[in-house]
Amino acid sequence: MSQTADDLDADAVRTWCSRALDALGREREAIDAINVYPVADGDTGTNLYLTVESAAAAVEAVFAAHETGPLAPSTADAVRAMAHGALIGARGNSGTILAQLLRGMAGVLAGGSGPGPLRLALARAAVSAREAVAHPVEGTVLTVATAAAEAAARTPDDATVAAVATAAHAGARTALDATPGQLAVLGRAGVVDAGGRGLVAVLGALVEAVTGQPPEPVAPTVPVPAPVLDCPSADGPQDGPAFEVIYLLEAEDAAVERLRTRLDSLGDSLVVVGGDGLWNVHVHVDDAGAAVEAGVEAGRPHRIRITHFAADRGHARPEPAQRAVVVVVPGDGLAGLCAEAGATTVLARPGEPLASGELADAIRRAHAREVVLLPNDGELRHTAAAAAEQARAAGIRVALVPTRAAVQGIAALAVHEPDRSFDEDVVAMTAAAGATRYAELAVAERQSWTMAGICQAGDILGLIDGDVAVIGEDIPATARTVLDRMLAAGGELVTLVLGEDVPDTLAHMLEEHVREGYLAVDTVVYRGGHQCAPLLIGVE
Length: 540
Fold this sequence. Notes:
Layout (H helix, E strand, L loop, with lengths): L9 H24 L10 H22 L9 H15 L2 H18 L5 H18 L8 H13 L7 H18 L5 H6 L4 H18 L31 E8 L2 H14 E9 L2 E8 L2 H11 L1 E9 L12 E9 L2 H9 L3 E4 L8 H10 L2 E7 L6 H13 L3 E4 L5 H9 L7 H13 L2 E7 L4 E3 L2 E3 L4 E5 L2 E6 L2 H13 L5 E7 L4 H14 L4 E8 L5 E5 L1
Parallel strand pairs: 5-6, 5-7, 7-8, 14-15
Antiparallel strand pairs: 1-3, 1-4, 2-3, 4-6, 9-12, 9-16, 10-11, 12-13, 14-16
Helix pairs in contact: 1-2, 1-3, 1-9, 2-3, 2-4, 3-4, 4-5, 5-6, 5-7, 6-7, 6-9, 7-9, 10-11, 11-12, 13-14, 15-16, 17-18
């Protein structure tokens, strides 16, 4: 913080992020415990923590980049990094809204960081967050953000940054205490809004960053007992959509407006934040595939996360499910397919290796005591093992089934039975995956030596069990040859996963080829969506 205490400089922004992360770390479990709206899935504190963790990491990266240069980061550098980090790392409904609040503030503070800009930044944040939510509801974090902005606006013209921040925090705390009287589901549960409490923690961290003193901890005037069971929302029982879908989206503004309309018709809890070509999309839907497909129509979705809400979502603090499956998938089409089967999915990104933290986060999001992890890629075995160890340290029983391809994961998921013992289930899934040979078609990028000979750039490569076995000139002929090689050793079921640009006629042709040449062999076809390979093949 600058010596005058009238300027929110880059060091203060850095401290703010650090203190906010500390505060949410302390309050994460308490906030999770009072999470009853919009879905009682007990993860608001965790989602806010992960969102701020991403924001703080982005700010630290800016400071690291300036260590060897002659100039220190500016306030604009720091707040833009904070906003971008929150945007790309936002988790859940609450984290997505917080990301927009920080983005709204950054848009103002990048141009000035005194008391006046801070007042305007808080106002801009509150307005932009409301605009991002399809159907704003009072008694939520939106109400708390508005109250913070209004309290800041009432400070005298000669107020310091510290005074403005302190007023905003006080206004937010007062509004938080009033939320049970504004939203019936909170009143019945005897709790304040979880997202609002998280925002109060973030604003408290801002006060600490600019004054050097932490504010008094939150002590809501409304008692906070254990939330009651079967507590309906303000609009009826909480038996809404089955899936939470989140993804980053590269798209133009006009396409995003069409996307908002499309997603609003598919589900609820719609929040779309961001701008300048990069957006974070959050929605609750019954048809996860349709929500992802809408993103594909609007632009390029990536970092897709699909979570299946627990069956007992009507409980304010649901008991973890006994068992869940976490699966890595190479395309958005398979993400929807696996999610509809009850799995928590992680989308592999071409050219961007998954981190163990992403897989560990997915294991936690599954809300289960026992988790089966399907990495579906041989190169992820060490990453998946590290994620499993992280989850085990948190008390979750994790079994890693070493699937090396998506079709092996599909086979394992098909025999998953949560009602049998964990060990029996893992053995059955492992056996199903091991009994599935896998192949894929790829396009050669350059001349190269392979197990099947020399290929030229543009050749179609047929890889069986990870090795190049066929070099062809076109996809249909190469696919037929690969199928013949695989079925020569026998098989009962062929699985075909088509890439985004592959026509349905290829599937029809291959189905006919199998039907005519191999008796009693069935074929199933899935659309993989946007994936690296034009065709994935499995033979069981």
